[in-house]
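so my prof wants the structure for this chain in the tokens format not the other one, which i didnt know existed until like an hour ago. anyway here's the sequence
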Amino acid sequence: MKFLCVLILIFSGFMETTSENFKVVGPAVPVVAYAGEELVLPCSLQPNISAVDMMVEWIRTDKDTDDLVHLYKDHKDQNDKQMKSYRGRTALFKEELWEGNTSLKLAVVQTSDEGTYKCLVKSASGYDDITVHVLQVRDKRYLLPKEKN
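here's what i got, hopefully its the right format
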């Protein structure tokens, strides 16, 4: 009987940890941005489980050190160690965290935003991450059609 109780406890613990298994997914191709506009860096959980109780961290990885772009932890944004150039320009889609959407919204895109970003999502039982490349920040003025004479 003790063996059966131990087996049930082990199995129930296994079921609990597998219920939080997830994979972080993002775009397969680099993202192109336009200076002055808003940009969304795609990142989400598969399967679509809630990220409300998880830590979501966005960092720049193409610098000498990993620099914090945005941090969501303990149910709130905690950006006291955020890079100065991102202050007031980043946000998560809080109303969509429960669906597993951990994408980052970046306002007023600048040429200095071009680079490599990592989306790291951590739960009590594990973590996963993806890399998102912002390939080029373009100025829309150069994309307008020329006037015909």
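also thought this was worth mentioning. The helical segments are 2-18.
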